[in-house]
Amino acid sequence: MLRLPPFTYLEPKSVRQALRMMQDAGPRGMYVAGGTDLYPNMKRRHQEPRTVISLAGIRALQRITGGKGGAALSVGAGVTLTALHTHRRVSRGYPALAKAAELVSTPLLRNMGTFGGNLCLDTRCNYYNQTYEWRKSIDFCMKKDGKICWVAPSSPRCWAVNSSDTAPVAVALDAQLVLVGPEGERVLPAEKFFNDDGIRYLSKHPDEILTEVRLPALDGWDATYWKLRRRGSIDFPVLGVAVWIKWDGALVADARVVLGAVASYPMSVVESAQAVIGTELEDDAVDAAAAAAFKPAKPMDNTDFGLAWRKEMTRTYVRGALEQLRDRQRTRGR
Asked: How far apart are CA 294 and CA 312, in angstroms?
């Protein structure tokens, strides 16, 4: 049985109090929201904080505000994944985000896990997400205690992948993330929140709190999210595809295509989006976008399924997502 190491548990009632607690705890302190990622990692000794500061008691982080009449919507980082996918204004106005939240793990874990926690999810790898004893037996990897990346031993960097379901959607929607730290508040576009680095995967500072996610107003756009995994529940994605389309009648005025679980960050594929801008999503445009997404997708041997098949599924899923958005728009135009 894996057991948690000893630690001090604190539960502040406000963001300001949480920040003070983190200052007192120093570098051995960590924030926790739902705990569905941190606590298993602590059991495997991936993270070993001496002080854990829970954000679960901060009610201000659990609110969903705005969104009336298609206006911008603000979602607190402490909103559970269950609340995110069942909330009326989210499910109606932002169905891609609601779907992504619904596809995370199982109902019990969605009741605990939070939107902010899923965005901040630790990167994953078959050589990292193992017990301490297993990792020690092969020699530790550079993400924790070692000096080598077992996925690419000659590489100077860690290739652990971003396996968040909500992150690709947040990037595709161009959501704005609000971070609060000792020096005040700053707002980052979701795309700038993530780094292409398996170890330093977030631009969030350790003493900052992700407090809020601001979703754009509804203004003639649509989005969808497709997830590939071995089972219909529980599993992390081995591929996530988020596609955002801004419509001008039947024409695509703007687009974003974002791939999840194929790199250490949600990968925005500009060439794929450009292939459909100015089109009516005819089959040749969709095929061109799918081919453009296929090229930069470089899955490695650190998650489930074979590499070549996973890469090919990038083409298939991008094509399917675009066709779904095209069919929706044509249905609305009838």
From this structure: 7
Q: For the stretch 15-33, what's the b/e string if a residue is b when 16 or more beta carbons lie within 10 angstroms of its beta carbon?
A: beebbebbeebeeebbbbb
Sheet strands side by side (includes 51-54): 8-10, 51-54, 29-32
Q: 244: closest CA among 265, 263, 216?
A: 216
Q: Are strands 184-189 and 51-54 parallel, antiparallel or unpaired?
A: unpaired
Q: What share of the chain is helix, strand, coil (3-state, %, to 5)?
A: 35, 20, 40
Burial 128-157 (b: 16+ CB within 10 A, else e): bbbeeeebeeeebbbbbebebbbbeeeeee
User: What is the amino acid identity at position 17?
Assistant: Q
Per-residue pLDDT of the chain (334 residues; tens, 9 = 90+): 899 999 999 999 999 999 999 999 999 999 999 999 999 999 999 999 999 999 999 999 999 999 999 999 999 999 999 999 999 999 999 999 999 999 999 999 999 999 999 999 999 999 999 999 999 999 999 999 999 999 999 999 999 999 999 999 999 999 999 999 999 999 999 999 999 999 999 999 999 999 999 999 999 999 999 999 999 999 999 999 999 999 999 999 999 999 999 999 999 999 999 999 999 999 999 999 999 999 999 888 899 999 899 999 999 999 999 999 999 999 987 6
Distance of CA 31 to the CA centre of its chain: 18
Cβ distance 35 to 81 under 8 Å?
no
- Could you give all domains of the chain from N- to C-terminal order, each with its CATH number? 220-334 (3.30.390.50)
